[in-house]
Amino acid sequence: MKARTRTLGQFVTFAAIGLANTAVYYAVYAPLNRWIPYLAAHVIGWIVSIIGSFLLNSYITIRTRPTWRGFLRYPLSGIVNVVGSGILLYLAVSRLGMNKDIAALLAGVLITPASFLLARWAITSGVTAQPETEGPGAQGDPGVRESASRV
């Protein structure tokens, strides 16, 4: 039961960070879009938001120090999100006749758990579990585990 509660808490935090990173993306994209081509602005906005997402989810959601290995794997969760939500969007609109806007929101909600699981896997790859940092006898930085490998 404790593991389920922890996973649910991580999922909620992951979703909140995702919303914040959408705002970060747009805050980078919108001003750059006025000065450089929109696709270049999009790529820069995505890079900034994925770095922020990785760091926030590492430290806050998973409570571990980021590793290069995790950083290199982390964009897979974004790719799964884009491809998976695209497939769900297509099926909802073309096969079920749903409204495009509602279908896009639903597809995003439905794919988020898979994206979360993949992001959590990416972040924790190469991390060695440490003793709990809360409660009596806790050791180490509060809520942050050391990583086994930086690469």
From TrEMBL:
| Compartments reported by the entry | Membrane
Q: Where is this region: Disordered?
A: 129-151
Q: Which UniProt keywords apply?
A: Membrane, Transmembrane, Transmembrane helix
What InterPro entries is this protein classified in?
GtrA_CellWall_Glycosyl, GtrA_DPMS_TM
- Any single Gene Ontology cellular-component annotation: plasma membrane
Per the record, the major location class is membrane
Residue ranges occupied by any GtrA/DPMS transmembrane domain in the UniProt entry: 13-123
Q: Which residues cross the membrane?
A: 7-29, 35-59, 71-90, 102-123
Which Pfam family is one of this chain's hits? GtrA_DPMS_TM
Q: How does the record classify its membrane topology?
A: Multi-pass membrane protein
Any one GO BP annotation for this protein:
polysaccharide biosynthetic process
> Belongs to which family?
Belongs to the GtrA family.
- Protein name from the UniProt record: GtrA family protein
What species is this protein from? Streptomyces beijiangensis
